[in-house]
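Team,

Forwarding the record for the chain on the shared tracking sheet. I've put the sequence and predicted structure together so nobody has to dig through attachments.
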Amino acid sequence: MNRSLYALIAVAVVIGLGLSSIFIVDERQKALVLMFGRVVQVKEEPGLGFKIPVFQEVVRYDDRILSIDVDPLEVTPLDDRRLVVDAFARYRITDVERFRQAVGLGGELAAANRIDGILRDQLRAALGGVTSNDILSTDRAALMGEIRNGAAEEAVGLGISVIDVRLKRTDLPPENLEATFDRMRAERIREATDERARGREAAQRIEAQADRTVVELVSDATRQSEIIRGEADGERERIFADAFSRDPEFFNFYRSMTSYQRSLQANNTTLVLSPDSEFFNFLNDPAGSAVPSAGQ
């Protein structure tokens, strides 16, 4: 009975040792086999791996692309306009053995702290060498590339490859917001004042042009009316002259009647004339013909 028990215990121990010597690495991981803290095996391909039970241990690290958010950082660009930037980075563990040597037992958390420090230094160095307009511009790919390259060079010693660095948000410090808003309002007021001044100037030019056009139109119309009136007067005189040449007596009669009409109005017109005045030639003649004067 004791022998059977011992045999069962021995089999269980063997099975346990056999199982503990096997480990599995999936496609999302990389693994290191350590013996007394020293790396004895690197397992980067997914599948089964083997280790010595008890004496060796397996440490796994994420093989996917990881992200890290950098805490808000205050930078001072070339134009001394302080900004608070919020950035993030994507990285991947490429050399798992070097990564273990660099971060030790801290693992990915220690690596994140190291990367955060690297990114903060690179952000200060890169953003401090440009103006705030360059940082706030929508086209800042070159600036982000410079930060990424600098961070990637420093991260090589950690066994990490920095894939990308981006700015998530760029703001003014809270104490500068009100002053900035006041400056923006003043700038908008100045622009509005300039626009109104330009509008008034344009209105004055349009009014002056309209007044000039009115004067020119009235002058041209007056000139044309005078020409037409002169032509009409000339035509009238021509008709009178033609009529006079055809019948001088009738012309004298018509002219006398017109004079009577204009002179003898119904408003108590008083004329003081000699009775033998030529003005009454047609009135003194019963036949309605002109009476020859004494000199005729």
